[in-house]
Design brief:
β6 and β7 form a beta hairpin. The longest helix is centred in the middle third of the chain and has 13 residues. The chain is α+β, with helices and mostly antiparallel strands.
């Protein structure tokens, strides 16, 4: 694993992502977690040109607040995804299966904190995320404790497919994230820029001829709204500007973009428009 400094982190600490956000009040992590943790939620993702983001942000209600952690509003993230050698997690999403899982470590680069996260999706289409504090140096491996935790979460969610199989790192993503708190619905939205994907070439789950091994998309932004069953104000603004939810997964879409041998029909519109 390379040094803990994603190439996307070209924005200096504390700089607001876009001018339209400069006048918004801030929210700290404790309040955001208390009022909008939303570990069980409906996610809607939008992929749009970075150049189209200003117009969307300019229409935000003045009551929307920006997450600020020690003066940092655009935080660097690194995620390492784990899958079986047969890419069970990827294939469950690609085909797709209603009941599926995703396993990753997520590292908050600015604070050097890592978590192991297990995301499960049940029959009703609701995503549940469970997480465990994780040692920073172990973020590219699944430790014995991490595997035990993963198996417990999957078993309790009645998700099959990983039992008895190795789980190895297959993809690393890096990006900058700005988080918005929408008080009217106690919901959140995230804005990811400086997007980068890289396969893990020294693992058997990744073919040696799967080129390119790295993909950078600085001209893109991914906006993700995280709310209950009702759409949030940010969703409505995006719709008003002509943006619609896209079938997009950083793991699934990234793997399909980097590995042409994998099934990609589910993400074909996004891949054709933004990745190919």
């Amino acid at each position: 694993m390379s040094a803990l400094a994603p190439s996307a982190a070209a924005v200096p600490a504390g700089v607001v992502l876009d001018v339209p956000l400069a006048g918004l009040d801030t929210v700290d992590l404790a309040e955001l977690t208390d009022r909008a943790s939303l570990l069980t939620r409906i996610d809607r993702k939008y992929v749009l040109p970075r150049s189209a983001l200003d117009a969307v942000l300019a229409d935000l209600d003045p009551g929307v607040r920006v997450l600020d952690i020690n003066g940092v509003r655009s935080s660097a993230y690194e995620s390492v995804y784990f899958d079986t050698p047969e890419l069970t997690s990827f294939l469950m999403a690609a085909h797709p299966r209603r009941r599926r899982f995703k396993i990753r470590t997520r590292t908050y680069v600015d604070s050097a904190q890592s978590y192991l996260e297990v995301k499960t999706r049940g029959g009703r289409g609701v995503t549940v995320k469970d997480r465990l504090p994780y040692a920073l140096d172990d973020r590219a491996t699944l430790t014995t404790e991490g595997r035990r935790y993963t198996d417990t979460v999957l078993d309790e969610a009645d998700i099959t497919g990983a039992e008895g199989q190795d789980l190895v790192p297959t993809l690393t993503t890096r990006y900058l994230r700005t988080t918005l708190f929408i008080p009217e619905s106690s919901s959140r939205a995230t804005i990811d820029t400086g997007l980068s994907w890289a396969t893990v070439p020294d693992r058997p789950a990744v073919r040696a001829d799967a080129l390119p091994l790295r993909l950078d998309r600085p001209q893109l932004a991914i906006v993700e709204t995280k709310s209950g069953s009702r759409a949030s104000a940010v969703d409505r603004i995006l719709w008003a500007h002509g943006h619609r939810p896209a079938t997009m997964s950083k793991y699934g879409t990234g793997m399909a973009a980097l590995r042409r041998d994998l099934p990609a029909n589910k993400w074909a519109p996004v891949l054709r428009r933004y990745f190919r």
